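Exercise 7.
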Amino acid sequence: MHYQVADDEITNLVDSFDYQTVLDNGGVWFGVDDYNKLIGNIDEKEYIYKDGQIVEKPAYVPTAEEKALVKINEIMVENDVQIANIKDAMLVAVLIDDIELQKELKQEYASIIENTNNKLQEVEVND
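Solution. The predicted structure, written as tokens, is:
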């Protein structure tokens, strides 16, 4: 009985829906085939309604900000690897008490940080 009441309510809502007003206000009526395209029931492609037609959805084009974030992440990954290698080498240099190697590693560390900062500034300027 509960289901019958719900079904009747849905039928009443649909029966009283004013389709013509929707169409008069810019709404679009789709046939079954077009509707199935738009909800993804036809093939593996995605479709959109554009300029009065149903067309294949164009490939996503990342924004300039998204492209810049990808570049920044790439730079930081490279930086993290280089810094980790220097830290490992510094640990060995300290353990074997190699002062010259420690100085070289400190300079290399500073150089990597400077290069990373320069690369990051280039991304902000160019992208």
